Amino acid sequence: MYKRIKSSINVLLLLSFFIPILSLAQQSIHTERQYLSGTSKDDTKTWDFFCSEGRNSGKWTKIEVPSCWEQQGFGAYNYGHDPMEDRAKEYGLYRHKFKVSKDWKGREIKIVLEGVMTDAEVKINGKRAGEIHQGSFYEFKYSISKLIHYGKENLLEIKVDKVSANESVNYAERKADFWVFGGIYRPVYLEAFPKENIERVAINAEMTGDISTDIFLHSNAAQYVTLELQDLKGNKLQDLPISKIEKSDAKWKLNTKAQNIQTWNPEQPNLYQLTFLLKDKKGKTLHQYNQRIGFRTVELRESDGVYVNGQRIKFKGVNRHSFHPESGRTTSKALSIEHVNMMKDMNMNAVRMSHYPPDVHFLEVCDSLGLFVIDELCTWHSPKLDTELSHKLVKELVVRDVNHPSILLWANGNETGWNTDLDDDYAIWDIQKREVIHPWNIFKKTNTLHYFRYHAFARDAYSQDKIYFPTEFLHGLYDGGHGAGLDDYWQQMWHMPLSAGGFLWDFADEAILRTDRDGELDTDGNHAADGIVGPYGEKEGSYYTIKEVWSPIYIEDRFIRDDFNGKFRIENRYHFTNLKECKLEAKWLLFDGPNGKNKSHILDQQQLEFPDLAPEQKGFFQVELPPNWQSAHALHLTAFDPYGKEIFTWSYPIQQANELEIEQTQTLNTKSKISWKKHGEEYHFKVGKMEYQFSAKNGILQKVKKEGHVIPLENGPILLGQNDAIDTIYIDKKDEKLKLITQFVATDKTPKWAAHVELSSDKISWTIHPNALLELEVEIKGKRIVQDYKGISFTFPETEVSGMKWLGDGPYRVWRNRLKGTRFQTWQNDYNNTITGVSGFEYPEFKGFYSNLYWAKIEGKNENGFTVYCHTPFTYLHMLTPENPPQDPKKKVSPVFPEGDISFLMNIPGIGSKFQQPETMGPQGHTENYFGNDDDPIRIHLTFDFNTQSPKI
């Protein structure tokens, strides 16, 4: 009995000895990761740190890793354009202690550094892990299995030189047009591989399901490999039979084919997991390696276009820096998701990495959410990057990123920084043999020249047979570029067969939060204020213009009139999606008036189906007209993509301004007797609680009082662009109303081409109503082509304005070449003094031009506001004059505003970009305006309400 018990105990002891080993053996087939730093800007670890120069230097202290050390209060700041003599040259010393499990002994251990600025020397327990790495934006790693103390404490030491010992690296990375930082700014971690392992794989998964792959091995025992196709949760979908295999000591090449797969594209970013099981001769799994893939085929067909899965595509793209205002180049996956979602929301389908490879998680998000990517080696103009070093950097770039289905092209540097000795390197490491481009160059099959003017679409040069896609165009600066001019450019790009679209510059303002200037947001003047969004993702007006212009559902512009039949012509501008997969919602809306609660009331609502239209096909859809549709104020059409996300909302006024607002202003029925007198050179009118004072010399409104309290709207209307003499001023009484009329002298400078035409004279007519409404009718003599403003203006002190509520297009201001992206409804904006891309970063900006005004309630600070109704269709409101940005020496993005504070205009200017005046960016940017017949005056008709109670709708 005792022997049996003892025997059982021995068996249990034996089993207890083997079970951990079996468990360990089971675990050892997987690659394990141990982070030594944090994983992102939002998850850091504290290391010991010494900074050699600048702030907090000369002593050992603490720092968060990953980070840019400037943002942690060390060293000094530099922008890439700073003179060499002004550049900071500090170095940093990092120390961190860590332990490695005894279970890792016998495995292959590597330390991985995802990004260090700029030169990095890595030591483990006092011994150098490998050669010094140079280049800020590349992942590098060392095998450190023999340097580790297993189960004991280890010391990691890293010396980081902010300025590289390789001068070509400094030219490529630190003299560029972006902020330059120092430090370990991306994560650091250990990887533990099984002793017999797959180091990495390179995969070409094509639209047909065909897969070719290179497997890079560290193994003497491996005999064969099996492949499984899984979903992203690890559920096996199918075993993949190997049709061909070629073996060498370090690399196996094999081919297989998956069945019934769904392809990857930005509109349907279908992803899979490809699992490799490395086996020995007994069938034991030595290593399991998982790689996420997407099936797609990329082709650049010469003198034809860029094709993905057999479909010719056009890039609707933007350039994007890896950047956050508080952490510099240290980012996070959450930030990558936020940025990609914003790009997708703008209906973009592509992003160019500017001007360096991004964080791994950004590419992962592009894969999963769907964006085409151009991945780029970091160079900047001349001189060229050192060839010997560049061979290493190209390898690091491609080896890390080779398996991302989102990447379509490699960019061998930027803007003359191309080292042509590297052009063939990409194919060495890229199993997919993706093509290489030279941004801002005509190279092989492509023309990617930057910042061409609109007329360059003529394409009469020797490059006219090249695939045409500028990797930078419409360089944003402050509020210029991006949306401004895009409609003109895109109309040409869309209809040019050899155009493959283009990329805007750039996504976000690179405004760094200066830790040495009490948290100031610094864009280095006009160098980094280039974004569609602000540093924290604040949406500027161009955001919504891009969203409309790049909508994959193109709805032909139209106006709704009494004979409207509900029919809209459309075009499917998707590349891979049939419009029948999208949804459409139609709303017939009524809006509250100036004293309402700023709500929209749905008169009728319809859920509609789009027609069966394949990509690039045209057709139409029909909106059902409800019985009372003509009483609605607007029709809104909202399109949703197959995932239920809004593509865009188009809006169409039902009634014109002269139809809707006359009815509104007539609802006041309070009547009082009007009294008036002339006092010197002034006319004084009094009606009810209101007093109006006009100049008897020119008919200009001089003062408004309500119960003795001044409402400071005055000095108007100034007739803009007119200087004719006054003929007469007189008062006319009609019914219970009084009119003050100013008649100007007709011009005596009739041009020869209009000698037969009797030109009209200007006229200002004020009507004082018994209900105290003040009506203004202005006639400005006709002129066919004008370059100055046509309209009228008043003064109203900016210091007295607190906000504005209006019915019209909004909520963003517009320019002549950036009218799209707004929506017609009631809006309310509080006053702000934002200078786009410079200060405030509060959007929408309050000051500027607003289109399609019906009425506006100007909110004063001391109950001194008023409401104005506009009865003239297509009138622009000029609401105060924004400050010009401080660094715009050639005034490309500083349009001249009309005199006065509040204006009612028939034309407004365009705005330029960093490198162009608006007139070189397309027809919409031209300064000439055509107003029709020479003898037909421009008429502006307004009604002002200064009463306590405004008309009710």
Automatic annotation (TrEMBL):
Q: What is its EC number?
A: 3.2.1.23
Question: What GO terms fall under cellular component here?
Answer: beta-galactosidase complex
Q: Which family does it belong to?
A: Belongs to the glycosyl hydrolase 2 family.
Which GO BP terms apply?
lactose catabolic process
Matching entries from Pfam families are given as: Glyco_hydro_2, Glyco_hydro_2_C, Glyco_hydro_2_N
Q: Which reaction does it catalyse?
A: Hydrolysis of terminal non-reducing beta-D-galactose residues in beta-D-galactosides
Q: SUPFAM superfamilies in the record, alphabetically? A: (Trans)glycosidases (SSF51445), beta-Galactosidase/glucuronidase domain (SSF49303), Galactose mutarotase-like (SSF74650), Galactose-binding domain-like (SSF49785)
Q: What is the lineage of its organism?
A: Bacteria, Pseudomonadati, Bacteroidota, Cytophagia, Cytophagales
- Cite the record's note on assembly: Monomer.
Which Gene3D superfamilies does this chain map to?
2.70.98.10, Galactose-binding domain-like, Glycosidases, Immunoglobulins
Which residue range or ranges hold the Glycoside hydrolase family 2 immunoglobulin-like beta-sandwich domain? Answer: 207-296
Keyword Cell membrane carried by entry: no
> What is the recorded name of this protein?
beta-galactosidase
Molecular functions per Gene Ontology? beta-galactosidase activity; carbohydrate binding
**Cofactor(s) in the UniProt record:** Ca(2+)
- Glycoside hydrolase family 2 catalytic domain residues are 299-517
